[in-house]
Design brief:
206 residues, single chain, two-stranded antiparallel sheet, Rossmann fold, 4-stranded parallel β-sheet, 55% helix, 8 helices, alpha/beta
């Protein structure tokens, strides 16, 4: 009896490890080309995320893991995101000007289009492509926003770590996500590839 349990446990460990390694290879490949079964491998990486992250922290770079996972999730979510009707645009407050005059609410920063940072432009284009813009300073804001808005899709602007974190969170709320990574990390003066955001909006607007 104990022998059978031991064999079963070893089999589970071997199969799980093999699937995780394969999922990591697939996620890395997704940076450069389309891959099969993206959604399946996303679920594997999400399920084993914490132990995988611990291994990357010790032997590699967690930023690589986050980047691979976001790329794979974008690929897995593309078809479903195209079908969404009410879309949010969630952007980080770290892109705003240091002397931003806008006030903060439980739903984020209320942009006043002062022209001191890129958000005045983002606000205009979000409206043009039918996205509801929220400038957030943390995950607690997102919880308030999704209670307020009956959204089925969310376009996310953030560093890869935050993208992956919010993607995992909103997945449990049945909100389809797509991420546009920032060009640099940090708590302020972060930048984005604006043309990439517009390219994504154009693609999903067709």
């Amino acid at each position: 009896m104990y022998d059978l349990i031991g064999i079963a446990l070893i089999t589970v460990v071997v199969v799980s490890t093999s699937l995780v390694i394969l999922a990591l290879f697939v996620s890395r490949a997704s940076l450069n080309r389309n891959v099969w079964l993206a959604g399946f491998f996303v679920n594997i990486l999400d399920y084993f995320y914490l132990p995988i992250k611990a291994i990357f922290q010790k032997y590699s770079d967690t930023q690589k893991l986050e980047r691979w996972m976001v790329s794979l999730k974008n690929m897995a979510h593309t078809s479903d995101f195209k079908k969404t009707k009410h879309r949010l645009l969630l952007a980080p407050h770290c892109m705003r000007s240091l002397d931003c005059p806008a006030s903060s609410t439980m739903y984020g920063i209320e942009c006043v289009s002062c022209g001191k940072c890129i958000f005045a432009k983002i606000k205009t284009d979000a409206k043009r492509y039918n996205y509801t813009l929220f400038i957030v300073a943390g995950s607690s804001y997102v919880r308030h926003i999704i209670k307020k808005e009956s959204a089925d899709g969310a376009l996310l602007l953030a560093c890869n770590y935050e993208l992956n974190k919010v993607m995992r969170s909103l997945k449990r709320k049945n909100i389809t996500t797509y991420g546009v990574p920032l060009l640099n990390d940090g708590c302020y003066a972060t930048e984005m590839d604006y043309s990439k955001m517009i390219e994504v909006m154009e693609y999903f607007n067709t």
